[in-house]
Amino acid sequence: MTITLDNLGRRFNKEWIFRGISKVIDPLHPTVIFGNNGSGKSTLMKLITSSEIPSEGSIKYQIGDNVIPEDKVFSYIGMATPYMDLPEEFTLSELLQFNLKFKPFNDGLGVKDIAEIAFLSDSLNKQVKVFSSGMKQRLKLALAFYTKNAILLLDEPTSNLDQKGIHWYQEQLVKVGTTKTIVICSNAKEEEHFICNQIIDINQYK
Ligand SMILES: Nc1ncnc2c1ncn2[C@@H]1O[C@H](COP(=O)(O)OP(=O)(O)OP(=O)(O)O)[C@@H](O)[C@H]1O
To answer: Which residues form the ABC transporter domain (predicted)?
Structure first.
């Protein structure tokens, strides 16, 4: 999937959050969006998911020569964000099975495989609401990484992760490699997302 941002801008009331972002994001150009708190990273992410509309400019989605309409883009996206809630009444096993009803996991992986990948095998029968914040974050990330999708969008992926979790996250990024179009929002250190070879520094688009 190639995502082309053309002179993108968003304002709320009279205040421009950013203007003039033009970039091509594709599997060969994993991209990190950097900026301080409140700079507009999540807003740009919402434009990319097509859940909000730009105030100016446009976004085009293409697979080869096929243009994907904006209202169909969501079905191509796997995402993990702080503002996305997990269905916490489910046990982990129930949640993963529920997920499988809508989309398969990569490479024919099953419920137990995903739990193992996320170091959650011992918690298959636990309700998600009793998971620690780090466990919930690994689960969100594992779902985003391993559900079959062309686009991977991660907002603050290392939040709530300890050093071991950050290392695990980086290993998953390397495994995805060029198989998906990757966009990551972060105010953390650049090296945490070392596979990204394109940076959108929101502060440059004020
Ligand atoms: N629906 C909205 N209405 C008005 N202002 C908004 C709305 N959504 C976001 N904003 C404003 O846009 C700015 C950017 O917010 P955004 O959440 O995109 O920042 P961020 O870079 O993701 O921040 P953080 O790192 O703290 O998550 C903020 O000033 C915020 O108040």
So the answer is: 3-206
In the chain, % helix, strand, coil (3-state, to 5) comes to: 40, 30, 35
Distance of CA 109 to the CA centre of its chain: 20
Conformation bin of residue 86: beta by default, left when phi > 0, alpha when psi is -120 to 50 = beta
Extract the tokens encoding 137.
């974050």
Report which protein residue has its CA nearest ligand 1's atom 28. Answer: 38
Ligand 1, CB cutoff 6 Å, lining residues? 12, 17, 35, 37-43, 187
For ligand 1, atom 18, name the residue with the nearest CA.
40
Checking if the pLDDT of 190 tops 80, the result is no
Structure tokens of 71?
């209202």
Distance 10 CA to ligand 1 centre (A): 11
Q: What is the average pLDDT score of the chain?
A: 95
Q: How far is the CA of 100 from the centre of ligand 1 (A)?
A: 33
pTM: 0.94
Alpha-carbon gap, residue 139 to 11, rounded angstroms: 33
CA 202 to ligand 1: nearest atom:
21
Q: What is the architecture, at CATH level 2, of domain 2-205?
A: 3-Layer(aba) Sandwich (3.40)
* pLDDT per residue as tens digits for the range 86-109: 999 999 999 999 999 999 999 999
29 C-alpha to ligand 1 centroid (Å): 25
Q: What ipTM goes with this model? A: 0.97
